[in-house]
Amino acid sequence: MSGLTVFFRVDASLTIGVGHVMRCLTLSDELLGRGIKVVFICTELEVNLIQLIKNRGIEVHAIVKNILPVDYEQTKNVLNTYESQYKVLIIDSYIHDIEWETLIKRHVDLLISIDDNPRFHNVDILIDNNYKAETVTFYKENLLETKKLLGSFYVLLRSEFINYQAHVINKEFLIHVFFGGADYNNYTYFYSEKILEYKNFKVHAVVSNSFSYVDTLKELKSQYGDSFEYSISPKNMAEIMEKCTIALGAPGTTTWERMAMGLPCAYLATNNNQIPILQEIQSDKLGIYLGKASKEMSSEQIQSFLKFVENVNLQNEIAKNGKQLIDGQGSKRITDFIINTLRGSY
């Protein structure tokens, strides 16, 4: 669609994590593929992904503070520097609230929020691609004037994972461990160590450049040799996952990547708001839920994990169900909806 610029207001840091930026980049790939101009607006936090975004050839405007009044002024100034027939702003943030949205909405043709935490918004389109978000009572009773794209139909999945959907259970048993790129609690180390010391499994752990505890992973590598591998911000995440038999880790964007590839996962909640979703995932045989993550893996978690390891039939069922649920077309559906909304079709 000519004359359209899509702006993303999104941040990354140790506490925020990198998932917000990564799913925005996934959507931006679809937009760019259709010849739509994309611009990112990000805060220069201590740990950020601004350079990573620039490395993909995307314009980035850095703002200095994410204090909301200052944030609004700086975001508005960026928007006003561009002359476009249509301006769309997509916010992926838990910090920006309805007051900020009300102010910024006057400066764009379409305001969109990607938010998997049900709350009040003043936007034109709300995207919550959490599992079964379409059944959440809050959305049925509120935001009645807002167009809502809800549930796994709108999962933002990188193309590399779609290409690996022929995954089958491997004969060599390898466990993929991932608790988010930043993992500021270092669950990656604690759970990898527990698995490796409890039974002679092989583990491949993944973290990002923003991970602060690389020395602990080096210690595991020194201690366990070929039984432990780790990757930092790998460009071939799908390839690594494809070689693994099962996964252990936290939910997030990677949940959908695991499902799309048919990689059965044992999940641990790193935040209380993840618990209801993980319970649903277990109930529908899309994964198993071990409980809340901590720096001490409980005996109950260990026993549940070992039962999962031994239950190949359940692993196969989870793999099959995940691939059926996630078709990888979320970015296309969202982009179509944005364009059709601007054209007045919706």
UniProtKB/TrEMBL annotation:
<feature type="binding site">
    <location>
        <position position="158"/>
    </location>
    <ligand>
        <name>substrate</name>
    </ligand>
</feature>
<dbReference type="GO" id="GO:0016740">
    <property type="term" value="F:transferase activity"/>
</dbReference>
<feature type="binding site">
    <location>
        <position position="257"/>
    </location>
    <ligand>
        <name>substrate</name>
    </ligand>
</feature>
<dbReference type="InterPro" id="IPR020023">
    <property type="entry name" value="PseG"/>
</dbReference>
<keyword id="KW-0808">Transferase</keyword>
<feature type="active site" description="Proton acceptor">
    <location>
        <position position="20"/>
    </location>
</feature>
<protein>
    <submittedName>
        <fullName>Spore coat polysaccharide biosynthesis protein, predicted glycosyltransferase</fullName>
    </submittedName>
</protein>
